[in-house]
Amino acid sequence: MTTLMSGAMSIVMYSCHNSFGDEVKGLGRWALGLLCVVGAAVAFMLRDTLPPKVALMATNALLFWGIGLSMIGTQEFFGQPPSWRLFHGTWLAGVLGVGWWLLVAPDFMARVATFSFLAFVFYAAQVRLVLRHGARHFSTRFFGALLTLQSAVVLSRGCLALLSGGASVDVLLDSGVANLYLAMANFMALMLTVAFMTMATRRLQTVLESRSTHDPLTGVLNRRGFARAYERQRALLRRSGRPLTLMIIDLDHFKLVNDKHGHLMGDRVLIHVARAIAQALREIDAVARFGGEEFVVLLSDAEPPSAVQAAERIRAALPGGPGHRLPACTVSIGIASHASDEESLDGLLARADAALYRAKANGRDRVEVSETPAPATAPAPASAAGSDNPC
Fold first, then answer.
1. 3-state secondary structure of 294
2. How far apart are CA 330 and CA 364, in angstroms?
């Protein structure tokens, strides 16, 4: 059952790797590691068909690879460089040690101890990784707890092999310790996989949420993400009465860039512009791509003069022609601030858009600020005396 479930989980992880391998690292390594565990089980079952020593050597080698690849996958998941030297050094030492105690100087207890202590190296490395780089979340803590338990089980088996003889650790004999280890080994093989997949699922959830609120090309917010950011900032600023300013940025003659240099170069220009906008803003500000070559910026607690300064920084950061790796480009920018607490996002966007079109009409490559509309004036009350007053 453990072998079948490991094979099934390997397929699930490989499928996730194909779909989200760039965002969630390590799934492919874990899938390959599970296949190695399946191969080890098959090799062990064939020990009566194949030469027994060949089957045992293959079983141990595949187990080392499976456990080691899970370590590599965990390192990649947490964004750490894979320890390939540790991987190759440990499994080679394990195969040579097991081979020595199996073929040259047969000693079952030494063979079990060698395997256990070297497998412990792989598990302990993952425990250290979770402690140093794991997020404070249930899925990560659950994975770390299982790794710690598995490390203790493997280490205990190695110590028992040296201290109490081989009978207590031989999984082919009917003993309490051996049965307990066999049950734990099968249980942990599945639970560790489930725990890692739980962490991966949480990471996938974050990735999917990001995809729903961010532009895939430039990485800035999309319309949906911008609307959320606006509502949050609007609620915060409304209570304090502080201003909120919005700017719409449009690349001038962007179609000519695509026609002359190709759409791939056009995409690079958009990415550069998005990065230049983000670098010109504060951390509390937000930038979004509304489609095509149009970007929208939300400036929290900023008056129009501050927005104009930010707009000029953006214009200065754009590619400037000869000597630059990207084609020269300019932008037109329209700026508007909330006229009142009752003004909606659509109304603010409309006034900023009108300022943008004024910038386009006035020659492009410039900044225009929308005038704040005057508040509506209440009609004068009618005279109480009316026509009864004499002339």
1. strand
2. 8
116: exposed, middle or buried (Cβ count in 10 Å: 0-12, 13-18, 19+): buried
The four Cα atoms 59, 62, 64, 66 give a dihedral, to 10 degrees, of -130
Please tell me the predicted confidence (pLDDT) of residue 175.
58
Query: In the numeric block, which tokens belong to residue 203?
Result: 């990471």
CB atoms within 10 A of CB 368: 22
pLDDT in tens, 273-292: 999 999 989 888 999 999 88
**Backbone CA torsion sign across 230, 232, 235, 240:** negative
Q: What's this model's pTM, rounded to 2 decimal places?
A: 0.69
- Structure confidence at residue 378 as a pLDDT band (50, 70, 90): very low
Kindly report the CA angle at 220 between 216 and 222, in degrees rounded to 5? 75
Return all residues near 25 (Cβ < 8 A) that are at least 6 apart.
Answer: 73, 76, 77, 79
The one-letter amino acid at 152: A
Question: Mean pLDDT across the stretch 18-29?
Answer: 88
C-alpha dist (Å) from residue 373 to 40, 163, 237, 340, 348: 76, 87, 20, 9, 11
| 130-139, 284-293, 377-386: least confident range | 377-386
